[in-house]
Amino acid sequence: xxPKFNFIEEVESFCKEHNLFKKGDKILIGFxxxxxxxxxxxxxxxLRTKYxxxxxxxxxxxxxxxxxxxxxxxxxxxxxxxxNISLVIKNVKLENLSNMENTAREIRMxxxxxxxxxxxxxxxxxxxxxxxxxxxxxxxxxxxxxxNGLKGILPKNRKIIHPLLGVNRFKxxxxxxxxxxxxxxxxxxxxxxxxxxxxRNHIIPWIEEHLNSKVVEKLYxxxxxxxxxxxxxxDLAKRKLFKSILRKHKDGIKLSLIEILKTRSVxxxxxxxxxxxxxxxxxxxxxxxxxxxxxxxxxxxxSKQIMLPHNIIVIKEYDSLIFIKKGSLISVDxxxxxxxxxxxxxxxxxxxxxxxxxxxxxxxxxxxxxxxxEAFLDLDKIKxxxxxxxxxxxxxxxxxxxxxxxxxxxxxxDEKVPKFERDNVIIFTDNEKIIWVGGMRIxxxxxxxxxxxxxxxxxxxxxxxxxxxxxxxNKK
Length: 476
Description:
This protein is of the alpha+beta class. The protein has 16 helices and 22 strands.
């Protein structure tokens, strides 16, 4: 078969399998001028008519290789002009030469991100191939990566896509030769001072010659298995995390240590990483090292704490494990509360949405008892400010139907509320007393009577994490 059509068909099939783009998408192509990115550009130049794609090419010139860098830029201009594709170029001079690879990558991705916003781009296409995937898997394996790291480069990660990920390097070269297309060679790729170059230029060729001639294919297939495994473990961990949370808000999460210790170690990694992400907004810098640090304090006696990147503190205390942002709260027990000086129609508290409404007429008596998420209180018996919080030592109230006070602890015992759930119950208080143990019982002193003129209806609903961010905006 003609290498050209074989290559285009293989790339198109991979894109369809992983749903990398849709008809009519605007795609930004990261173009260095090397063989991979040249093949990527040419492939999309063929596919754009069929899929009504709008293409934009971006090139970053780091000016590290003198005349070679200028030659790369000129080549990029020529090929984009020849194929009638829009091009933008960024010229930079790297200052941090000690960590040149990472610095260049950060500059490149920041630039692509800026262009994505500016030009309303749907996808950023990069030219990593099957050999790149094999190198990545081997590199991460040597560094001690776990399941999530061994899935390697993803076909699609948010807006970033890798259409050539399932294609071997030799097919890319054959395709370019069939197109009579040249490409630029980055001589720095031959510099074995970089770990990845050592893997590419020495380790993989040695394995191919002496151990397994199909090592690239084997490592690529391994990445596919780990990608599926990672997805399964992620789902299992999310379910376990949901059961383990004792208390939660935007700056901290308190977990039941009892539930955590029941969980297999591999799932704990996913749980801890997810909690870390929820608090600081990124999984960046959470690796096996951080996981081992957390594991080391789980079964120790007494209180222990460690510091993670991005100023996240992990505290093991009694039967709980707390992740909290440094300096965000006074209490490590996440003693979070919300105070209102007047009725708010809708707002959020931790991972709950609260609705409040002044009404004149009660619903049916049956409705009052069937909906535990709702409470109906005599508004004139409430003394503002109005506070939402969690239980405290010594809390007492007069449960509806009783005429004497009762310790909240005893009330929970009588109602058979599990210990790990008690810290999660929202306590509604006014300036003098508890008025509602959320979802359970109101205080008899705010009960509605025949003399009631104004009724306060309160409803609590648990909200999912992605809706919580929207609800938080209602606080303002």
